[in-house]
């Protein structure tokens, strides 16, 4: 049994968490001031999104120096203080490792001697598109050659075929571990091996080799780390290989299937209706697929996804019930749950009136491209409002006061007006809040081995409204129910009577609108 099987991770997006100096952008000192809040919530690990020097073309996922802190976020001394403050509270610190690409302002990209650290070609060898719209090959007017960027043109892809690149990255990673960090969340790590001729950039031919080499060179003699790889387009069969402990690659991956069930196959902007059966199908397959080998990560939200209570729940009348139910369902699966800042408050998507209200390069580029291609601006806006990443990036809602208590200046993106009633100050003092529910879910995972390690069985597979599953470990059993509808109902589950001890919610197999329940017996 590994320590992370009973752990819960909390993600902080520093730009939007807490601003200590009034410049309108969150910073490391802002986080330091909120450590007791994290301790109160009870999380085991903090994953910190990028805080490194960066032109901020993609909010820090475009790094120009891997071994420093951007002045907008603070200093290395602040980082050390944050790391010590977390460790003093028994919380581990995992940092973001963004090594598929650097910023175009990284000295490596500017160094003529390091030309082969990136992908340069006299003519584009394929017709790859950037995830942020437009072609993935960019003409550099100075050299007359094209370079590859799967994200923005300010995010050139590193050439991992070059052993010097891999060595430099390993050295950088060891530097952070020596400084005290407890692991890495590896940004789009399954893009690092590419086959340009075959047109492959997901899960390319040398992926396992690169990860095993990294493990041997960086992690071999260290213990207690958390290594999680972000992997769009990963299948469960591939994830078994990536997360099999015997292969020494990663502890777990972030898969994307469940956050694509309301999107078309080729574009996240192609909106599809949410179907509960599709959610069960994907989660069920991942639970089964990683039952005997490997490990799941569990998430609804991160800085790239719209808020789950708005997306799969109800952010109106039943917001509190829906947010709690979504937490219950996710956290009682087998895997390591991730909580994204504000999820524990039931924070919702925000209001965007016009394109001017968006900040994210992905949204802005898509709008420009789609409208130029003839799409109706209103239709494009509709999709941006639902799927836009800025929904996740509005300021953390601390209080009902100005700018949600996030900053004393002007925030870089406005706070959601609903901070007047959705905020941490109110939630912490209300025993019935989403916050206290998440506290309890985290505590339960620490206490009950059946949550951390029990077998998983999906129940009511075809039901369109109720998510149901059981867990079992050494004679201990759990039944978990989530009502994904606004109707009250009575449930029948073979083998369960409703007389079992309620663990979450009241007795009996009846569910109120959007209610989640759990029962326990041994
Ligand atoms: O957001 C997305 C889909 O909703 C993805 O296309 C996203 O860009 C992809 O999951 C990769 O994400 C990661 O790398 C990007 C960065 O913009 C994201 O914030 C990061 O999580 C490039 O570094």
Automatic annotation (TrEMBL):
Coiled coil region boundaries: none
Keyword Chaperone belongs to the record: no
Residues covered by the Glycosyl hydrolase family 13 catalytic domain: 11-393
SMART domains the record matches: Aamy (SM00642)
Matching CDD domains: AmyAc_SI_OligoGlu_DGase
Keywords: Hydrolase
UniProt cross-references to Pfam families, sorted A to Z: Alpha-amylase
InterPro entries attached to this UniProt entry: GH (IPR017853), GH13_cat_dom (IPR006047), Glyco_hydro_b (IPR013780), O16G_dom_2 (IPR045857)
Entry keyword annotation includes Transmembrane: no
Protein name (database record): Alpha-glucosidase
Species of provenance: Solirubrobacter deserti
């Amino acid at each position: 049994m590994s320590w992370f099987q009973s752990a819960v991770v909390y993600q902080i997006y520093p730009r939007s968490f807490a601003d200590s100096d009034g410049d309108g952008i969150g910073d490391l000192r802002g986080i330091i001031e909120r450590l007791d809040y994290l301790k109160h919530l009870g999380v085991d690990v903090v994953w910190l999104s990028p805080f490194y020097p960066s032109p901020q073309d993609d909010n820090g996922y475009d790094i120009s120096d891997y071994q420093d802190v951007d002045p907008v976020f603070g200093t290395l001394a602040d980082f050390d203080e944050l790391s010590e403050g977390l460790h003093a509270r028994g919380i581990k610190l995992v940092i973001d490792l963004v090594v598929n690409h650097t910023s175009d302002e990284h000295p490596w990209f500017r160094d003529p001697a390091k030309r082969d650290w990136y992908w340069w070609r006299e003519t584009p060898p394929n017709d790859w598109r950037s995830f942020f719209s437009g072609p993935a090959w960019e003409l550099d007017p100075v050299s007359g050659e094209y370079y590859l960027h799967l994200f923005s043109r300010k995010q050139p892809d590193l050439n991992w075929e070059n052993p010097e690149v891999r060595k430099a990255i390993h050295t950088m990673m060891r530097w952070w571990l020596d400084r005290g960090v407890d692991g890495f969340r590896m940004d789009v790590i399954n893009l690092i091996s590419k086959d340009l001729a075959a047109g492959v950039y997901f899960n390319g031919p040398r992926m396992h080799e690169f990860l095993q080499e990294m493990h041997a060179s960086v992690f071999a003699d260290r213990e207690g780390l958390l290594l999680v790889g972000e992997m769009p387009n990963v299948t469960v069969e591939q994830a078994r290989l990536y997360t099999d402990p015997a292969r020494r690659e990663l502890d777990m991956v972030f898969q994307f299937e469940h956050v694509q069930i309301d999107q078309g196959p080729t574009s996240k902007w192609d909106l599809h209706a949410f179907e509960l059966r599709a959610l069960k199908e994907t989660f069920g397959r991942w639970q089964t697929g990683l039952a005997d080998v490997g490990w799941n990560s569990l998430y609804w939200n991160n800085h790239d996804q719209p808020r789950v209570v708005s997306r799969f729940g109800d952010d109106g009348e039943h917001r509190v019930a829906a947010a709690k139910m979504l937490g219950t369902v996710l956290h009682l699966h087998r895997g390591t749950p991730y909580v994204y800042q504000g999820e524990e408050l039931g924070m919702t998507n925000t209001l965007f009136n016009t394109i001017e209200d968006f900040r994210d390069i992905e949204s802005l580029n898509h709008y420009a491209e789609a409208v130029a291609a003839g799409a109706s601006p209103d239709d494009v806006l509709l999709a941006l409002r639902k799927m836009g990443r800025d929904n996740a990036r509005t300021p953390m809602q601390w209080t009902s006061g100005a700018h949600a208590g996030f900053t004393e200046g002007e925030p870089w993106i406005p706070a959601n007006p609903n901070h007047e009633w959705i905020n941490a100050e109110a939630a912490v003092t209300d025993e019935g809040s989403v916050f206290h529910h998440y506290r309890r879910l985290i505590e339960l995972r620490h206490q009950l081995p059946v949550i951390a390690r029990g077998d998983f069985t999906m129940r009511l597979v075809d039901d369109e409204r109720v998510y149901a599953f059981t867990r079992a470990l050494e004679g201990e059993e759990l039944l978990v129910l989530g009502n994904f509808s606004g109707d009250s109902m009575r449930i029948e589950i073979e083998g369960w009577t409703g007389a079992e001890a309620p663990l979450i919610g009241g007795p009996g197999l009846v569910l109120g609108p959007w209610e989640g329940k759990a029962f326990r017996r041994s």
